[in-house]
Amino acid sequence: MPLRMHSPKISLNISELPWLWATIWLFGLVFTLEILTPPDYVIGYLYILPILFAKPQLNRRATLQITIVAVVLTLLNIWIPGYEQIHPAMVADRLITSFALAVTGVLSDRNRHIQQTLAQQQAKLQIQSKLASLREDFASTLAHDLKTPILGAIETLKAFDREQFGQIQPTQKNVLNTIVRSQQNSLQLVETLLDVYRNDIEGLQLNLTPIDLAKLAESTTTDLLDLAASRRVHLSLNYGDSDFRTFLWVNGDAFQLQRVFTNLLTNAINHSPRGAKVEIILGTQGSQQVVKIIDIGAGIQPDEMPHLFDRFYQGESERQASGSGLGLYLSRQIIEAHNGTIWAENRVPQGAVFGFRLSAINHIVSG
Predict the structure, then answer these.
(1) Domain boundaries in the chain?
(2) What's the CA angle centered on 189, arms 222 and 342, to 5 degrees?
(3) Cβ count near 304 (within 10 Å)
(4) Which of these, 117, 144, 232, 330, could form a disulfide with 274 (CB 3.0-4.6 Å)?
């Protein structure tokens, strides 16, 4: 009875046909060598070549089916050409070879699966990166476009306040001032958003000069007295262990560092209970100038601590109930651009401490 071999049906795409024929040619070559070689020599190991060759080009099912064909052909060599007696060593060699081919096929398939997964993840990351870039471009463009009408509204309201369009009543004047302050806050938010995106893309450009942090702290405290008074918060400025005003010289950008003072002080004022005190403590520790802003508010939740200075972060605690999530992030950008450190911690028994450190410099005060 003639021997009939039922090979499994291999499914593949039209584009994979050339690779299939190349694989079949390799199989035929190895099978021919198997038949022409004495049975003491196992040539079936060479089926690993067409299996590895087919793996990157053919689909998963076709690769597994090719592995089965290789195993079947290796075992078939026990009987074909059949001119010698079958002995246990021959069978053992063919079984070991078949096992090696099966392991190669399985590992090859697993490697293909890992590579496909990695490729898919990489494609997803690229898409997410493009979407994030588009979102940031959109937000930056929107913020830039919003700046012009807000400036126009502020100037118009100021013209009304100067009575350029007719006389206004004192009560109307108070309303106009309130609207102007609201528009100015909106403008500040838009400018902060633009600065954040610009700094992320281009980096923060600093105009470095010798700066006295004590002077900046005093100036910012004066600017925020109205906000503190509206919330009935008392601002206290002290110089650590010194009873007298001291100088805290650093090499920095005065405009940017004042923004840090403003952001941290505003954050402390807004999260302090009425009648509370916010302390600004200035001092020198070794080769660094240290600024601490202390409040007695609700404090910071432990799970929020690592994210306080992240962009747009707003926690769920009472302390982070309001705000854009940009002020602390911008402050971090500015301090890190100065090669400094910014941090936050809870105060015992109540409240929070926000602070930063910058390298001190020696500066001679003239006059």
Answers:
(1) 9-203, 209-359
(2) 65
(3) 17
(4) 232
How many residues can be counted in the chain? 367
Q: Is the pLDDT of residue 7 over 90?
A: no
Structural contact between residues 125 and 186, judged by C-beta atoms closer than 8 angstroms:
no
**Residue 217 predicted with pLDDT over 90:** yes
User: Rounded to the nearest 5°, which phi and psi values hold at 166?
Assistant: 125, 165
Q: Which residue has the tokens 């919003």?
A: 146
Residue 352's contacts (CB-CB under 8 Å, 6 or more residues apart) are 268, 271, 294, 295, 297, 299, 300, 319, 344, 345, 346
For 148, phi then psi, to 5°, come to: -65, -50
Q: How far apart are CA 99 and CA 101, in angstroms?
A: 5
Q: Is 162 exposed, middle or buried (0-12, 13-18, 19+ CB in 10 A)?
A: exposed
**pLDDT tens profile 177-214:** 888 877 877 777 777 777 777 777 777 888 899 999 99
Q: Which residues of 40-61 are buried (b: 16+ CB within 10 A; e: fewer)?
A: eebbbebbbebbeebbebbeee
Query: Token digits for 322?
Result: 């309001």
Q: pTM of the entire structure?
A: 0.56
Identify the weakest region by mean pLDDT among 75-79, 81-85, 283-287.
81-85
- Asked whether the bond before 149 is cis by omega within 30 degrees of 0, the reply is no
Cα distances (angstroms) measured from residue 110 to each of 214, 286, 332, 342? 64, 58, 45, 47
Q: CA angle at residue 184 from 179 to 189, to 5 degrees?
A: 125
Task: Return the CATH superfamily for domain 209-359.
Answer: Histidine kinase-like ATPase, C-terminal domain (3.30.565.10)
d(CA 246, CA 250) in angstroms, rounded, equals 13
The pLDDT assigned to 281 comes to 93
By DSSP bridging, strand 234-238 and strand 277-285 are: parallel
DSSP 204-251: -----EEEEHHHHHHHHHHHTHHHHHHTT-EEEEEBTTBSS----EEE
Phi then psi for residue 270, to 5 deg, are -65, -25
Residue 7 host element (H or E): none
